[in-house]
Structures are given as C-alpha cells and as structure tokens.
UniProtKB/TrEMBL annotation:
Keywords: Amino-acid transport, ATP-binding, Cell membrane, Membrane, Nucleotide-binding, Transport. It comes from the Bacteria. Coiled coil: none annotated. It is a peripheral membrane protein. It is found in: Cell membrane. Residues 2-236 form the ABC transporter domain. Belongs to the ABC transporter superfamily. InterPro entries: AAA+_ATPase (IPR003593), ABC_ATPase_HisP-typ (IPR030679), ABC_transporter-like_ATP-bd (IPR003439), ABC_transporter-like_CS (IPR017871), MetN_ABC_transporter-like (IPR050086), P-loop_NTPase (IPR027417). Pfam families: ABC_tran. This is Amino acid ABC transporter ATP-binding protein.
Length: 240
C-alpha cells in the first residue's frame, strides 16, 4: 500500500530523515516509536505531502506521490490524517466536521455525505452527538470525531500522529479501542505513538526511529521482548 524508499529530509542544515526505507502492506498496522525529535511526525508529513522530501521516493498503491507534478489535493484525499491536537472546526457541529471533506473535496451531495457521516458516528458510538459543537465533547470524544472525519472519505491509508498524547489518561482507552476496531475492519495504518502498551497490542510491526534513521523494525514481540540493537534496548530501558 505504501512504499517509502530512501527518503531524506533536511530542515536547513539539519538532517531529520536520513534514508528511510519502509514498506507497509495493505491492512497492516505499523507503529513508529522513538524519542521526541527522532523524525516520526516529519515522516508522516512527507507521506501526506505536508513536507517535501529532498531525496527518495514515496509510492502509494503504485503511484509515485513524491513526483513534483503530482496533484497534492488528489493524493491527500486518499490519505486520512489525525494529529495530536484534534483540530476540529469549532464553529461546525460534529456532523459538519465529519462531512466537510466529502462535500468539499469529493463534491458528495449533502444528503449522501450526511448519511455516511451519521453511519460513521454510529460506528464510533457518537451518533447522539452529531449536532453538538466540539467544545461540548470530551477530549476523547473529540479525538474519536477527528478519526471519524479522517475515515469519511474512505481513505486507502490512515496516518495517526500521537493521537492520545494530548488526552487525560482516563480518555486514552476509548481512542485506542477505536483504533483497534479500525484494524479489525482492515484499515491500513501508520501511527506514531509513545504508548508502548498500545503499540504492543495493536501494531503488526513496530519501527524504532532514532535521529532520522530506522534502527530496528519487527513484530511487537521482537522489538519489545528481544530487541537486537543496543540503541533499541537503551530506548526501551529509559521508558521503564
Ligand atoms: P518527532 O515527531 O519524532 O518528535 P519531528 O519529526 O517532529 O520528531 O522532528 C524531528 C526534528 O525535525 C526535530 O529536531 C525538529 O525540531 C525538527 N523539525 C521538525 N519540523 C521542523 C520545521 N518545520 N522546521 C525546522 N525543523 C523542524
Ligand atoms: Mg511528533
């Protein structure tokens, strides 16, 4: 589904991604772990074309999306993104937020977009909040709405960037449960996370990033129980 090949990214003189190679299969859930500043968000942003790469190639379902001639909006329409801070539009009710992309990007008629949106809200257990405004929802509910919004256009790939890190601990579970359901439903997901327990339980593969380099990647069992590299062991030890 996604193939990241030899990707380099610099900010000025500062190399942030230094030759990233990563392939993600359809229906696979990949967790990116690594210290703050290791390049996780930048890597997700290069896939969503929010950051331009300096070298390498990114291929989405066979299409080279790093080609400068690519239609950026068309690529972004194929990828659902959720960031740490649930950026819901405060002046729009929940259903309006969820249907916005379908209506504006895909020109889906309102009635149809709303039917799809309500079905999604039903699925995430927030159908009764469809006409509430975001500030009337808890952080966990807002983040679930942000996920529903990302799903509304039926994306081929979901990018989740630390989606629980701004939440109170008691709200984390409901968001993680939703991601687990998406996985069960066959979504292809790349997520940056600092929740190791979550990476362990949900990811098919865990990728440890350090200073813009993939140090090690493997099943959660391999990475968390039998890390091969000293850097990985050191990173995990510091978390304990
Ligand atoms: P992570 O998500 O793993 O914490 P980031 O991808 O956010 O890491 O950041 C990696 C490095 O790139 C950091 O040193 C950060 O300061 C730097 N960086 C990120 N975005 C920018 C930017 N727009 N301009 C300059 N430096 C940036
Ligand atoms: Mg980040």
């Amino acid at each position: 589904m996604l193939s990241i090949q030899g990707v380099h990214k610099r900010f000025g003189e500062h190399p942030v991604l230094r030759g990233i190679d990563l392939d993600v299969a359809r229906h696979e859930v990949v967790a990116l772990i690594g210290a703050s500043g290791s390049g996780k968000s930048t890597l997700l942003k290069t896939v969503n074309l929010l950051e331009q790469i300096d070298d390498g190639r990114i291929v989405l379902a066979g299409d080279d999306i790093s080609d400068p001639r690519v239609n950026v909006d068309a690529v972004r329409a194929r990828i659902g993104v959720v960031f740490q801070h649930y950026n819901l539009f405060p002046h729009m009710h929940v259903l309006g937020n969820v249907t916005l992309a379908a209506r504006q990007v895909f020109r889906t008629p309102r009635a149809q977009a709303e039917r799809t949106g309500l079905a999604l809200l039903e699925r995430i257990g927030l159908a009764d909040k469809a006409y509430e405004y975001p500030d009337r929802l808890s952080g966990g509910q807002q983040q679930r709405v942000a996920i529903a919004r990302a799903l509304a256009t039926d994306p081929e790939l979901l990018l989740l960037d630390e989606i629980t890190s701004a939440l109170d601990p008691q709200l984390v579970g409901e968001v993680l449960d939703l991601v687990r359901e998406l996985k069960a439903g066959g979504s292809t997901i790349v997520m940056a996370t600092h929740e190791m327990s979550f990476a362990r339980r949900v990811a098919d593969r865990v990728v440890y990033l350090k200073d813009g380099v993939i140090i090690e990647s493997g099943t959660p069992e391999q990475i968390f129980e039998r890390p091969q590299r000293a850097e990985t062991r050191e990173f995990l030890r510091r978390l304990r």
